[in-house]
Description:
Layout: H1 2-19, H2 27-38, E1 43-46, H3 53-64, E2 68-72, H4 79-83, E3 84-89, E4 94-99, E5 106-110, H5 117-129, E6 131-134, E7 137-140, E8 146-151, H6 164-167, E9 172-175, H7 181-193, H8 208-219, H9 225-240, E10 244-246, H10 250-266, H11 274-285, E11 290-291, H12 293-297, H13 302-311
Parallel strand pairs: 1-8, 1-9, 2-5, 5-8
Antiparallel strand pairs: 3-4, 6-7, 10-11
Helix pairs in contact: 1-3, 1-8, 2-10, 8-10, 9-10, 10-11, 11-13
Domain AAA+ ATPase: 39-180
Protein name: Magnesium chelatase
GO molecular function, one term: ATP hydrolysis activity
Amino acid sequence: MIMSQNSAATFYDAVESASETVLLGNEDVLERLSVALLTDGHVLLEGVPGVAKTTIANVFARATGLESNRIQMTPDILPADITGTTIYRMQTGEFERREGPVFSNLVIADEINRATPKTQSALLEAMQEGSVSLDGETLALPSPFMVVATQNPIEMEGTFELPEAQRDRFQQKLIVDLPTEDVEHALLTRFDDDPQLSPSEVEQSVSEAELEAARNAVADTYVADRVKQYIIDIVHATRADDEIEFGASPRASLALLRASKARAAIHDREYVIPDDIKALAPAVFRHRLLLSTDAELSGRSTDDVIDTLLESISPPENVQPEASTPTT
């Protein structure tokens, strides 16, 4: 079992090392993307223009060797532009199926909130079922399959807010922040030395077999009953908190469980600890919770409420398997 766990840690180390060719200061985002990939999750990246949201997704695809397609979402994009369509060929007298860009391992949906609700919903079946319906036929998507969508939080004109059902399909919502002064200085130096530096410079760092081994390692990660109860305590607290109008659903519980197993394996542990839960809870919950009017009027953010809630719940102890010794 230890070798299996090491495969997940080795997988992430290789992806991180390859990504450093282009990326600086986005280690947390890269880790969360790896967590999602290893657990069949999807990720929503939010940040102001120019913080490298699309670059992060492209670099991640290159480092992991995933076949990727980018869709620039606009109001005139149709569902068929995503899923594909069937066209009639007069020369042959036959219908030909043209698969859309959703038929890839990693779909990058840029500015997803600029697409109409009808087009946004075209991703629902793909994200939830791993398949799409095309002219009455259900077609399986490649495996693994992952959607990374981006959106800009400050430019709302001409956008369509993602409905709750769509947001809930994303395992995590990650905030891509502006870089620190030191990171931005290093970034300027790197691109001054190599102005043509781009995601295409990133080389594939893991094989398909290594990815599969890492996914199996995550599946084998141990979760104590105390940890599962800790997740339940947190989720039920979101449903009872006066600052939260609508709390987390059972899908959020499962997302937090699966994501925590991946984080444990990435950190070379064979079991989940409370710190895994606390580290991932904001990313798993922030797009699912709806704050009360009083909380919003008080200037409280969703992350503020989540932090307060986590501080109010005591984490469990002795969560490792009986046959294991604690890992430092």
